[in-house]
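User:
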Amino acid sequence: MGWESKDQLKARMSKFIVEKLSNLKGKRVLIVTHGRAKRMLLEVLLANSEKDKERIKEKVHNTGLSIIDFSDNKNPILELLNCNKHLDK
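Assistant: Predicted structure:
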């Protein structure tokens, strides 16, 4: 068994969005994942936002908290990216 390719990961994240996230308007959802999957999820969700495309080019941390507002299903808003304040002592 080899590594999942970028295209395979993108297809899996796209399927997840359609199957699990598309009908959750008004709900709070927590998704926990590793950095690579998180980056791809953000790329797929924010594909229509030029501003956010640039922001997610930053390193996506495994432990970083990101918040996306889905109040507008067609244009999700990236409110927070890679916050690691919960790790501060």
